[in-house]
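Justification of resources, computational component.

The compute hours requested in this renewal are based largely on the per-chain cost of generating structure records like the one below. Each record pairs the submitted sequence with a full structure-token output. That output is archived, and it is also reused by downstream analysis tasks.
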Amino acid sequence: MESNNPIKKVNIICAKAAIEDVYAALVMGNGAVMEGIEANLFFTFFGLDAIVKNRMDKPHTAVVGNPGLRLPGGLRMPTLLGVIPGMEAMTSSMMLSTMEKLDIPPVSEFLELIKAGGGKIYACKLAMDMFKFTKEDLWDEVDGVLTVGEFYALAGGEGSHIIFT
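The structure output for this chain reads:
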């Protein structure tokens, strides 16, 4: 479908570390660069886990309070089961295993694809300060640590959109 006002830039904010939130940001960012759209991904609060070296390839998904949670195969998981010890780890492992079978790359490889396509990866300064992370804690290819104001300045322009996952 053609538009009179094409999207020229997407600015994706990832604020949560759950598998579904991190991968939503990565899929949207990768899709943008594949379509020739400028993409800036901004990781803040718990979303920082997606770009912290020792956490990035170990995402989890919340099993308590996640009413839409479906196990691979489509079976809805009752929230009450989430209180069983080990259920979150098991569910996360099952999700990641299913994603691997679908040839969905781990977080680090997905970020490499986005970077190779010209996308930019940023960390939030406030969240970095809150959680006492340093630039050395981050994935080596992170383009920078930005304040919210710097992110907004980067996000501007005609045909630019901000997406919050």
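The two ends are 24 Å apart (CA to CA). Residues 19-34 form the longest helix (16 residues).
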